[in-house]
Write a structure and sequence with these properties.
The chain has 196 residues and is an all-alpha fold. The protein has helices at 3-16, 20-27, 43-47, 52-74, 78-93, 106-116, 118-135, 138-156, 159-175, 177-185. The longest helix is centred in the first third of the chain and has 23 residues, at 52-74.
């Protein structure tokens, strides 16, 4: 692995590890998002505060850092972009700034997918949205999308990109182990898209 790839991975990890949900809720006067709802730093938990604007901004920023990480990595070639894609998601999940206790990586993974293979990203986002509207479970929506996107990637993308997508999907599924247990137990929190 050459220095360019290592540098891309470091930059992507640091980008991914920026906890926008935590920063934005503090700036918005909500306080520490880790003390609200699931304790997660992502957009879904920000939504649980009732502030849909902050939740939307968090989503955009978390998606954006995934896109940015891949684009920066791509400056050093395809391999660097693929390594950066995984590093960005790992950064969100295990941010050094928060003692490696981060989010589930769904929005950042979406940004990465949009930059790596946009058709896969769009299909994944639509699957998430459809499942969320029907079930009102963000975690179930993420799991459905994560299970589906590797197969889609192997159909429409080249093998290296499909492999990166598969690794990211596995990471997302693993980060949702507790959610799976709560879904099976019927204790998982729902989300609401209603106004007000």
């Amino acid at each position: 692995m050459n220095m360019n790839i290592i540098l891309a991975a470091i930059i992507a990890y640091l980008l991914g590890s920026i906890p926008f949900g935590l920063l934005l809720t503090r700036l918005g006067g909500i306080g520490d998002i880790r003390r609200v709802g699931s304790g997660n730093i992502g957009a879904t938990n920000v939504l649980r505060t009732g502030n849909k604007v902050l939740a939307a901004v968090t989503l955009v920023f978390d998606v954006g850092k995934g896109v940015a990480a891949v684009l920066i990595g791509a400056l050093w070639g395809t391999e660097a972009a693929l390594v950066a894609s995984v590093a960005a998601v790992l950064g969100h999940m295990f941010p050094v700034w928060l003692r490696f206790r981060g989010g589930k990586g769904v929005a950042t993974a979406l940004g990465v997918l949009l930059a790596l293979a946009w058709p896969v990203g769009v299909i994944g986002a639509l699957l998430w949205l459809a499942t969320a509207l029907i079930s009102q479970y963000s975690s179930l929506s993420a799991l459905v999308a994560a299970v589906a996107v590797p197969g889609i990637a192997w159909l429409v993308a080249d093998p290296p990109h499909a492999l990166a997508v598969s690794v990211i999907a596995i990471l997302v599924v693993l980060r949702h182990r507790g959610n799976v247990q709560r879904l099976l137990a019927g204790t998982e929190s729902r989300i609401s898209f209603r106004k007000g």
